[in-house]
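WARN no homologs supplied; continuing
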Amino acid sequence: MTPSESLDRFEQGAMLPRQAIDGLSRADLLAFPVPGTWSIQQVVLHLMDSDLIGTERMKRVIAEERPLLLGYNETLFTKNLFYEQMDAGLACEIFESNRMMTAHLLRSLPGDAWERSGIHSERGIETLEHLVRGYADHLDHHLKFISAKRIALGKPRAA
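OK structure emitted
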């Protein structure tokens, strides 16, 4: 996949979390229809936090020379950041705005910027292109979970 294709996927994902929760009540968002997994609410807040962290990493790779990109514990974020009290709709708005703004920045870069890299504290060297592709993949991965939870709730998304 080319950097341009990765960027297209990243940008096209901006509205997908909002679409994924369309028509769900607060009770639906907070339910645990698949035992032992996160609620839809927790998935949405995780996607927002993860993308905010990811775009910060991208900006640091663009602006700095081989910056350190710190890992984080997503389980502790979900447990300790009051995800159940947050507004999933607002999280989707933040996700969308952040992706659109970051995509605009990324489209402004010269071609050689995609080879810039940082050092992830757990995974090692990551290029800008790898980060963009990885966050596009991350969204797809979690949207499958939301879809499965909607089905388990008896509220599949209309095609």
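The chain is about 60% helix and 5% strand.
OK
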